[in-house]
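Entry 12.
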Amino acid sequence: MRYADLTKRIAGESVDSWTVHNRAVDRLTAGEDIFLMSVGQESDSHSPPGVVDAAIRSIRSGRHHYTGVQGDRPLREEIARRHSEKCGRHVNPDCVVIFCGAQNALFATAQVLLQTGDEVILIEPYYTTYPATVTASGATLVSAVLKPEDQFQLDAECITKAITSRTKAILVNTPNNPTGAVYPEAPLQKIVDICRERGIWFISDEVYMDVVDDADLCRPFGLRGAEDVVISVSSISKTHRMTGWRIGWAIGPPELAVHYYNLNMCMSYGLPGFTQDAALHALKYEDDVVTDVTQQLAAQRQVVIAELSGVSGIDLYTGGGGMFVMMNIRNLGMSSMDFAASLLDAENVSVQPLSGFGKSCEGLIRISAVLKEERLREACRRIARYVTSWG
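Predicted 3D structure (tokens):
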């Protein structure tokens, strides 16, 4: 039997990069003591009790039937209010559409914007699911590779050089996964200006934006001229320790919301009412959780940097913030995948090989600083011991 060409576009190295993580999860599930630092999720934290209680109350009240395709109005109003407050630009709730997580929102965005013959510029290093997300539409991926000597900071000139007559969208993730880099206003404004001049969409993945305390933090939706070209995508997954609740959203021009609605009609037909009620509670009443997450991640990231800085044979990229630290292992003479696989076997520590995060990322490793301090220090000591064994 034959399968669609789509199956080739959604496979490949970006998907394969999760192999080591999946092995680690299987071993953890089987009862082994695994230090899981290969995924962007706090390993030992629960969703806020108030969120769980809100979901239970919602289920018991009967909120387990069909809901609105665009998402519940109260939730969209709260997201619009918060986004307006943070960006300094009014957001109409009718321009907010709820999706099954930010990943689903990005996929839907690609489906309604892109088609065969279009090009999408990705900032490399990029998150490993981006290639399949954008090329599933038939579009072609074009990388704008950032420089490690600049701590992977955004270079508007580099992006401009990648633009062709076929460029339909530019996808920017700040704070960046995997580098942690936070992009300041000046280069972001240049990209917005270019997008307006050339009729290009600016897709802004903002899932880590509210877990970083950084003076340079800039929200693209609030920039001059952004209202017609910027699409903001985010979720409550990282901010409120709710990765499994699968609530994300996209915000853009009014016409875009209509296309999202039509796609959701044949894709999800609305999300569960009780998860939306839980999300609404989180956004309205759990800001202390966001503060706690932000402070913990910052402290834990510094633990990784302190423990691994100076270890012979590796280099760290420490700019920015969030939950990731990126490590260069090229001096060890082994691939990212081989390093991650053998580290798991030797030390029970799972990290993410970055070979699927762009062609320039071979020899780089992403460490998620998501464990509590004692286990995080032990995991880093194990990484250092393993690296030293190759020296």
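Annotation: DSSP finds 14 helices and 13 strands in the chain. The first helix runs from residue 6 to 9.
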